[in-house]
Design a protein that fits this description.
The chain folds into two domains: 76 residues, no CATH class; 106 residues, no CATH class. Helices cover 48% and strands 21% of the residues.
């Protein structure tokens, strides 16, 4: 049985290789769970295993691909639910949004659809936007965010390209805002809001 188990491992790793799934790939865990469901399909004898190897490999590859696609579809639907009414446009490879709240941005991060270090071109990291949003909240101002979710990968990736702050009562905070958005491509400061955008 040990030899059969080793052969099973080889077949599984061959599928990972043909699907180009390294251990760090977003679809790796999905593939692993899917393949584990087929453990009992392997024949008990070496001869039978050899005879059915090609057919099993093809069958397992199809199952894994379907599982990954299904998981990806769920991820896109889930991030659409979080973004809600902030979605402004769909493109073939991305979802654009405007006016995303701090709590929703934090939820996107918590559910793994972005990372603290994700950023758009020269814009600050997502983690920096969250920290600044929390700073705004501490002075009873409100920060909202614009950006894009790239959905042409196995795991949607959200980045921020604009920030708007409303309800600022302390003029000293304007200096903090300017410092935070330094290097932006567009800056707007008035009595209604503070706004910065990166191209």
């Amino acid at each position: 049985m040990k030899g059969i188990w080793n052969k099973q491992v080889i077949v599984f790793y061959r599928i990972y290789w043909e699907l180009k799934l390294g251990k760090q790939a977003p679809g790796y865990k999905t593939a692993q769970k899917a393949l584990n469901r087929f453990t009992n399909l392997f024949p008990a004898s070496r001869e039978a295993l050899k005879a059915y190897e090609c057919r099993l490999l093809s069958y397992l590859k199809i199952y894994v691909c379907q599982s990954i696609k299904s998981g990806y579809k769920y991820m896109v639907q889930r991030i659409e639910e979080i973004l809600g009414n902030s979605i402004t446009e769909y493109t073939p490879n991305a979802i654009k949004f405007r006016g995303l709240s701090l709590s929703s941005l934090e939820q996107v991060l918590q559910e793994g659809y972005t990372t603290l270090n994700a950023n758009f071109n020269a814009a600050p990291r997502v983690g920096s936007f969250i920290e600044f949003g929390q700073r705004c909240k501490s002075i009873e101002a409100t920060a909202i965010f614009d950006g894009v979710v790239f959905n042409n990968t196995e795991s949607p990736d959200l980045v921020i390209d604009a920030i708007t702050v409303k309800g600022v009562k302390d003029l000293d905070f304007v200096g903090e805002f300017v410092k935070f958005v330094w290097g932006c491509d567009e800056l707007e400061i008035n009595s209604q809001q503070l706004y910065a955008w990166w191209d």
